[in-house]
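Q: What would this complex look like in 3D?
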Amino acid sequence: MIQKKICILGAAGVGKTSLTAQFVYSKFSEKYMSTMGVKIDKKMLDIDGIQVNLMIWDIHGEEKFKKITTSYLRGAAGMITVIDGTRPETIQTAHEILTRVHTDIGNIPNIFLLNKHDLTDAWDISEQNMAELQKYNNPIYTTSAKTGEHVEQSFHALAQLLIS
Amino acid sequence: MSNTHQHEAAMQELRKLLFEQESARIDRLEELLSNQELHAQEIAKVLAEAVKIRSHSDNKLGQALTPAVEEALKTSIARNPQPLSDALFPVMGPAIRKAIQSSIATMLQSMNQTLEHSFSAQGLRWRLDAIRTGKSFAEVVLLNTLLYRVEQVFLIHKETGLLLKHIALDPSHHEDADVVSSMLTAVQDFIHDSFSSSANQGIESLRMGDLQVLIEQGPDVVLALVCRGNPPLPLREKMQTTIEDIQHDFHENLQGFEGDTQPFEATDLNLSPLLVADYESKTKKGSPFKPVITLGIITALIITWVVWGHRQQANIDAQWQAYTQQLMDTSGIVITSYNNRDDKYIIQGLRDPLSRDPYELLANAKLSPKQLELSLQPYQSLASPLVLKRALFILQPPQSIILSLQGSTLVLNGSAAQTWLDEAKKTAPLIAGISQVDTSQLTPELTLIERIQALLQPTTNIQLSLDKHRLIVSGKATQAWAAHAKKNIQNITEITQYQDRKLTLIDSPAYVLKQAYKRLRPPSTVRLLMTKDMQLIAKGSASDIWMVKAKQQAKHIAYLKSYNDQQVSLSSDIILQRAIEALQPPESVQLSLSNGILLATGEAQQTWIELANDKATSLDGIDRFDNQVARFIDEAAILAAAIQQLQPPSSVSLSFSNGILTATGSATGAWISSAQDQFVLVDGVHSFYTNNLKNTTEGWTDIQRMINQSSITFPNSIARISLDIQKDIATVAAQFQQAQRIEPSSKLLIKALYSNTASFITSLRLKAVQKALLAHGIGNQHLRIISHKTDATNAAETIHFALEVETKQP
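A: Here is my prediction, written as structure tokens for the whole assembly.
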């Protein structure tokens, strides 16, 4: 069995916790998120016959936890950057996060999740936005924590990246 | 070709000469290499040394050999496990023995602690805790005596927070260990960053209740111990040593760690020794005397209980012995045997039927009859008391005879009928214990009447007389004496009949009531009653004088306990008489009384009526006053009062009848008006008629005459007022205004008659006339309008006017 620590990051309210909740078994309650700025869950995946235990650190997106976030990132094997598809300004937050991660812990495997894809009427991601994200050369998935769209697949994809 | 061949042979010869020895060695070596048997022999010579040298240099030989060795072991065990078992026994045997010893030691420790606390107060409290929490008592004892116990050990990769190895006392704790490990790391990070501690500082412990997490940091790993209780300081040293060992042993794995935790399974050996526990009993031995003291107390209680039981039994035995002794001392009872068997007391012997009842004695001794098995055979005792008792029972002597015993001689004292004496003399010697009868002390027999008088003791008011065997009692006696006499006379056998019809019972209710009537002499309106408890009750009505006297007399009636006259009321005649005296009604008024209601009829002055209303109900015996007296009217006096009040001129004549004052003759309008205002002041006058009184004011009569002759004639079916009609109305209005100036109380009468079919048109015409008059300042307050149906067909076409002075009606 391989264990991997991954961090899930993004601006406040982009749906990080909802995505995680769709995907994982939870032992700790949501209150950890608001008190410590992190909640840790785990998910066991089978990737090409290899048991991979993902330890998912769901890190709070609010400003007040920024200092602590760096510590939480330490030792992460990969990360998921979540963007709210109905709020293009969260792409900017994603840029900032990635810059910080690269500075603090280096270049680690990352995937982008454009969340809230079920809100088609409010969807506001332009071609230009997509082009900006594609510059990172990281996989991009449209997801919906509400319907479960691409949630499982995106976590699998990250796990695949980690053991390849 | 030939040269070549020759040349080759020459070279061969030359080689042989030059390298013959070397060639032989090469051949040997080739043989050595190609011949496996020889090759194995050669390798065998150096194999041990080669393995030894290679093992020292690195561990690749071990790795290479591992599959082969594992396969070989499998094959060996599959073929025959015995050799390997024999080989391992020296190693496994002690290990197994050690494990078993450890388990037994733990169990004994648990038992020791359980026993040690079983009888103490604390032990009882822990037992309650065990019942409450559903845990075993031993478990509760262990928890309470626990100094500390390491329940879980986490080996965590420092940088990633990933769990490398986890061991726990309770295997169920394994489930979420990886998440806990990460969270523990996050908590450390959180605290570290929140309080800005230096990089070298880390959290050393976390505490919650009796749970404590001890944390020791290594360069690459973090060791966390979850402990219950208070772990000692040496445990930290042990943790540090463990980290050092792991850092050393797994240096390469830690350096290249990429999430594979498999290599760290081997840390089990390092971590297991950390799962330690220490209990109170190891450091603080309980007092060895405690169980002994507890046992002593229990023994003492048992002894006390046994002694108390014995004493109780001894007391009961003593009570039974006392009872048996009492039986022995009782005349007529002989006890032959007494013993106690199966919680029963068996008493055997003899008993004279005339002796005391043994069960009565048993009840007095407050012993249970269920425990008594009594067997007493009947016999006749010769003891004096029983002989005398037997004589009394058989001879049945009269009350005048007293029996006594002197030895075996029955002595008779007193007097008795000769017939009884003869029978007694004959029967007595036949009674067991009596040999002869002594009659020397007998006195002469009294006469029958003397005996009766002696027995009944009558008072002087009682007369007794005998008619052969019949006793006749007469005179006056109390009920108690009569009952006493009736009962006791039965003792005089000669009296067969008792007659007391002529005996008056002076304390009987009937007799006392009779006496009350004689003494109180109540009037016919009073009835006397006597209750069973001798209370005299008077009911009805009487004079108060009789009531007072009766109360006095009642005190002197013998055997009367109380007198009650609350139901006697004063008699109606007296009340009425007193009412007449108090109210003094005039002759025209009649008073009568019935059921407390005083009725007054007739007629009287108002002043008497008011006086009577005030006083009547305050008189004794009168509950209500029904005053139906009509007020007496003196018409002459009222007329006189009216003349006095109105002061009529001589031309006016006043008369009064049935409340109506009538004025006739003639007077000025001013007097008429004044009289109409003042007649209400005359008491008794309710109306004042002035219709027949002529107003003599100058001019007024002429105006009256002119107005009285005025009328308006309307064309058929037209309500509208024509100009001619308006002129007629204006004339009447002017005349009326003149009359008003002379006589302000003047009224204009408008009288319309209408046929059956013209009521509506007539009402319209009247309204038109009213409107026209109002235009001249004559309002409705000065008008009196009369309209009524008539059979005349043309009546509706004319409206008549008249002038009148208002007549005031009350």
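A: To summarize the key features: The longest helix of chain B spans residues 289-329. The mean pLDDT of chain B is 83.
Q: Very helpful, thank you.
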